[in-house]
Amino acid sequence: MSNKPGGAKGGKGAKLDDLYKLKHDNSGVRKRIAPTIETYKLIGFKLNEEEFVIEIERVKEIVRVPLVTRVSKAPHFVEGVANLRGDILQIVNFHKIMGLENPIISEKSRIIVLDDKNVLAAIIVDGVSEVIEVEKEAVQQTPDIVAGERSKFLKGIIKPHKHRNILWLDCGAIYSEFSAQNQKSTA
Hints:
Elements (H helix, E strand, L loop, with lengths): L11 H8 L1 E4 L5 E4 L5 E9 L2 E6 L3 E6 L13 E7 L2 E6 L1 H4 L12 E6 L4 E6 L1 E9 L3 E2 L3 H4 L6 E5 L7 E4 L1 H16 L1
Parallel strand pairs: 4-13, 7-9
Antiparallel strand pairs: 1-2, 3-4, 3-10, 5-8, 6-7, 8-9, 11-12, 12-13
């Protein structure tokens, strides 16, 4: 038995063969294919000094904060509506939902327009930071001490990414809260 890389049983080559699949191309040559690792693409943003992410496929676009018109009898977390190229958006103040101080709109402030077929809504954020890709194993359940009452809006926490923890917002929970509040205000 050989213990050299690429050697027979017991060597590193045997372990690598277990990790990689062999595939034949049209010429009959065998190629090694690395196993696929499930990853998520997320957009990072800040609310106050806390870092959050949301799935990139849930985002229609990110734009500067437009003129927002207040609406009477709207849920407490709805800042109002805005016209974005002919579409009327409901602008959600996620700071209020998360129990954070109200934002001061600045040059860095943005709205993230959520891509949902039933609701045209956007959340106000203090700034958009980056697109990150994380492996499934990097996502943990959010500890109760961190989440508190806002746990229903969190999908999890990303294990230290570049030496920081990031909270993952749950878009489905946002839509559910939004719909429930809209039904209360119309009833």
